[in-house]
Amino acid sequence: MLSMDDSTKFILKRLIRRIPLQMLQKTLSKWTYLREDLDSLDFKQSKYIFTECLLSLFEEKGTTVKRITELEMIYVIENPNQGMWHGFQLSDAEEDAPTVDLIQFKEQFKAHLIELNSHVSIKIKKHTDEAIWIRIAWGSNFTNPNHLKPTYAVHHLQTPYVFVNGLSLKHKPLLFQALVLATRYGSMKDAHLSGRKLTAIRDLLMRQYQQMFPTKHPRPLQEKNPVPTNPKIEKEQAVNTENRMQVACEAFGDGKLPELQKAVYQLETKFRDDSNKTLKSREEPFRGVVEFSSTNLLESLRHAVSSGIAATPVSALLPAITQKRRNRFIITDK
Amino acid sequence: MWTTNLHQHNDFDILTTELHHGKAQCSNPLPIVLEANKVMEELNRTLRTPCNNVKERRSRRRYSRAMRSCVEPTYLGYTPGHQTVLRIPNKRTPKTREVTNQVDPAQVALLVKKQWHLSYVTPLYQFRHTMVKTYSKELSAFIASEKQHGLAIEIGRELGLKANISVVNGLAEMERDAETVFIQILSKPMFAVKDDVPNVVWSGLLTCVNGDLDYLQSLPPEFVSLPLLCTSGSESLTVLVKSWFKKTFDCCFGPLGINATNLQWLAALWTVCHPTRNIQYLKLSWELPTQPPMDVTYRVDPECAWKLWDSVRQENTTEDCISIEEVTNFIRGLQTNFFRHFSLDLAAGSLRTVSTALGSAHHSGKIQIASPDFIITALQLLTECALLKMPI
User: Fold this and answer.
1) Residues B168-209 pLDDT 10s
2) pLDDT for residue A229
3) How far is CA B241 from the centre of its chain?
């Protein structure tokens, strides 16, 4: 009888603990490895007992770490909105870049990464939405690949975008080089866009959401109107509200917006307050970092504009999130 | 064997019942019953205008003198006015030396770096600093007996909980301030080895730093005012300690939040320390009423924050006093600079937290003081807040 070593058991236990009970059945049923044994499992048991049953089943089958990482990938692909996702952009495409297919990419990526670091465990899987999912567990000359802290990278073939989760600074150059070589691009750089929801980051970076473009001749804003004295006040206010709404949608988009959690602005600009002469005349910038955060930042900002918390015209810095497709900026004076 | 029935003097029991009777009528155990309504009105009025009498008082160097000079119709009416002038740490003689000179450094170490939850406390009836040993035993017994009544207490540790009440000498600034009382609840493991150090599971601090002199003088001699309670530890123990104090010293507790004005005060007071002690950053967080709600955090470079502070200082102020106008101008400067960049008015939201390397404060009444330099100033400000919040 084959048996699992302790570290394999530990990895499996950790993974099962991560998956909520109600999602276990669905996740396990997608795993071809377990197809025949699925009927023997009782999903009505408590999670603790269930885990014990599963452990003994795997022990019998002699399940390896590689098999368990398969299950982890199934779970992560189905539930990608965990951890922090960072967007990256490939540039300087070579001539043959658009012809790279999945098999070619797979071979090239594995070969290049193993050449850079021979102690890695790589798994590549293609998802239904054309995205290639890459899971890498990193090791070194002295340690085995660490399966508890894997890096995930998601790349859509024929697009210049890569989304990465759980990458340490140490491994960044290695992954970048392998990706650049496998995709036939010249270089890869930070897109300064990050968030907890992969779908939101992807939609924003690949412009896959409903946008509203400014009309050619924007209507003059109603801001400076005198206080209405006629009986049509309500009508006027309705027009005002409508205008605000339009300005808000032009700035941040229409309909459902990608869920970003944060936007960070590093201010390296001069102090701007006319009443403070001392600081205004100062040459050095007034340094600071401003961070906006919300469960759905773009929605909050759009509401701020449409409800009047933000003054119009809208500051160019805020719509830059959707226009420049990033949420980390350094602001300097021209 | 200690029991929960702790009243040792007969007259105590009688007085307590009388006081409770009094409370039932006008919720006021203090001898200012008749003035109560008038005082409250006055208090409300002054609360709305916190800038009253700034000009007259700014020139006064000592906080206490400023108070004594104000003879106003009701002696509590001007309380909010204190916040218009606050003493700041003297730049030439850093507070560090001062605090550790006055107070045992080991005791100061117990106060810093903890996250404190704040409450206000009404004056304690017949509390004696000389009896803290007895109180320790009584509180221990009370906790043990409450536990037997089935009240919530952390499981597994209940056997070895021991209260230790001590006096922290030197934190009080003025003669009238009662010395600070420090409470610790220690847990001994069930099978403790002889030399095992007991684990501190709860700490509390009852303090009064630079309390309103006229208010303190107006108290009958049998009352001790320690208006500020800081607690750190499990909520269930906080409830037990509070209920023991309530029944033993006939006092009341209430939650003490730190409002936007006081958060602004803290921001300014911390920034002032920068030349002597690097604050590393000044961080302010606002919550804006958008849907969904949005938090805006502004983290300012310490040098820049100091430059801004320096530019809003008024020329005719004395070295160690800062005024509410300066504080308001300081925050307004930050908000204006922010508005010029983002067209968003931070004043539409509410200030939630303020922090620097010297400490952090949250509007819900949580404060952490990371540096001993700042203890006296912070406790003084909080003592004021507690006295203001107290029902009269």
Assistant:
1) 988 887 888 899 999 999 987 766 666 677 789 999 999 998
2) 60
3) 17
Sorted by where each begins, the domain ranges of chain B are 1-22+105-256+382-392, 260-363
| Percentage of chain B modeled with pLDDT above 70 | 69
pLDDT above 70 (res B80): no
The proportion of chain A whose per-residue pLDDT surpasses 90, expressed as a percent, equals 53
Tokens of B92: 């030439």
The residues, any chain, with a CB within 8 Å of residue A137's CB and separated by 6 or more, are A69, A120, A121, A145, A146, A147, A149, A150, A151
Nearest to B268 by CA among B312, B224, B204: B312
A303, A313, A315 member nearest B341 (Cβ)? A315
Best mutation target, B281, B283, B285, B291, to test chain A (most A CBs within 10 A)? B291
Contact B294, A301 (CB under 8 A): yes
Scanning every residue of chain B, which has its alpha carbon at the shortest distance from the alpha carbon of A289?
B299
Strands A151-156 and B366-369: unpaired
pLDDT at A214: 56
A288·B299 Cβ contact <8 A: yes
Which tens digit of pLDDT belongs to each residue from A96-124? Answer: 888 888 999 999 999 999 999 889 999 99
Is the Cα torsion angle A277, A278, A281, A282 positive or negative in sign?
A: negative
Provide the pLDDT for residue B30.
Answer: 43
Joined tokens for residue B193? 């080895």
Residue-wise pLDDT for A124-174, tens only, equals 998 877 899 999 999 988 888 999 999 999 999 889 999 999 999 999 999
Any bridge partners for residue B86, and if so which?
B322
Q: What is the CA radius of gyration of chain A?
A: 26
Beta bridge partners of B165: B183
In degrees, to the nearest 5, what angle opens at C-alpha A295 toward C-alphas A290 and A301? 55
Contacts of A267 in chain B (CB under 8 A): 341
| Residue A122 token pair | 């790589």
Q: HSE, CB side, 13 Å, CA atoms: give it for residue A139.
A: 13
Average pLDDT, chain B: 75
The reply to whether A298 touches chain B by the CB within 8 Å rule is no
Residue A269 pLDDT: 94
A281 Cβ neighbours under 8 A, 6+ residues apart: none
State whether A290 and B294 contact (CB < 8 Å).
no
Would you say residue B47 has pLDDT above 60?
no
Residues 227-266 of A with CB under 8 A from B: 265
Please write the tens of the pLDDT for every residue from B290-316: 999 999 999 999 999 999 999 988 776
Nearest by CB to B340, from A272, A294, A313: name it.
A272
**Into which CATH architecture does domain A85-205 fall?**
4-Layer Sandwich (3.60)
- Positions of E strands within B84-198: 85-87, 115-121, 124-125, 161-168, 180-187
Query: CA neighbours within 13 Å on the CB side: how many for A168?
Result: 9
Residue B88 CB neighbour total at 10 angstroms: 15
Q: Is the Cβ pair B295, A278 closer than 8 Å?
A: no
For chain A, the domains span: 6-78, 85-205, 234-332
CA-to-CA distance for A87 and A208, rounded, in angstroms? 15
Nearest CA in chain B to A271: B337
**CA angle B182–B187–B193, rounded 5-degree value:** 125
List of chain B residues whose C-beta atoms are within 8 Å of the C-beta of residue A297: 294
What pLDDT, on a 0 to 100 scale, did the predictor assign at position A318?
Answer: 94
Q: How far is CA B249 from CA B141, B309, B386, in A?
A: 16, 44, 18
Asked if A279's CB is within 8 angstroms of B307's CB, the reply is yes
Q: Letter for the amino acid at A20?
A: P
